[in-house]
Amino acid sequence: MPVVSRVGLIVNDSKQLALETARGIQQVLEKSGHEVIRASSSGGLVGFANPDQHMRMIGYNACVPEEFDSSMSLAIVLGGDGTVLSAARQTAPIQVPILTINTGHLGFLAEAYLTDIDRALEQVLKNQWTVDERTTLVVSVMRGDQCRWEALCLNEMALHREPLTSMCHFEISIGCHAPVDISADGVILSTPTGSTAYALSAGGPVITPDCPVLQLTPIAPHSLASRALVFSNNEPVTVFPATPERLMMVVDGSAGCYVWPEDRVLIRKSDHPVKFIRLSDHEFFQVLRNKLGWGLPHIAKPDKQ
Q1: Which of 46, 130, 154, 290 is the most buried (most CB within 10 A)?
Q2: Which of 81, 118, 181, 210 is catalytic?
Q3: 24-63: per-residue pLDDT in tens?
Q4: Residues 143 and 258 grouped into a single domain
Q5: Alpha-carbon torsion 266, 269, 273, 278, what sign?
Q6: In DSSP terms, which residues pair with 251 in a beta bridge?
């Protein structure tokens, strides 16, 4: 493991607790002789493209902070799961590993918590950590040969109807397979990391992070035959909205745009996975148990007296 010299610090600067924690971490790192480069997690919040404004016709690399580069040994992320999703867009293109410290609520993507910051920093400074790579996707909105919008995705792309509109129709092409037609309120295309997010709420299966697959999950499908589909992540996916109304696309809950009938959404595996720093063995089933209550023992109701 390389000697830590330049360390990034990505902070949710809308949260006072994250700001206070960042000051303490920066002092510790600088006292140990390391250069600290701070950035706001807001730089990874692509936002929603208003139809009255220009589309975001720039590549996903645009989210990387100006002073961040591949010479950095790691970046420490302070915030909740939303902050981690933003930090993923800021670091994956330059392949800088991130240590996630939760200052939010659920913290499903967190590696450490405020109560064990001292231990976490000690391990970082001693280079006692490993890297867990997670698949990311490039989501592009295409019109003809023109890319009109693009973002990096760690969890999922959701394409769905607007409120107060009717059910939608989607024609979906996966690799060289025959296209499929789905009638539903929307569709979700997720990574294994995203299988515990929106896709789980829509009835999709949980997929362990080491599986090289993607998952397609209909939202409120109008057919008993329309169920979640799992397939190789080497297969590019194209979604054609076969409906006359515009649709809403949301990526990782913090980026998105409208998709018009003449557009198509192209989703493909990125060459830049997110590199999560692990300070101990990351037992996925234990995380499911602790965070989502999966596999807890059933306790029967007591007999009536």
Answers
A1: 154
A2: 81
A3: 999 999 999 999 999 999 999 888 877 655 566 677 888 9
A4: yes
A5: positive
A6: 157, 255
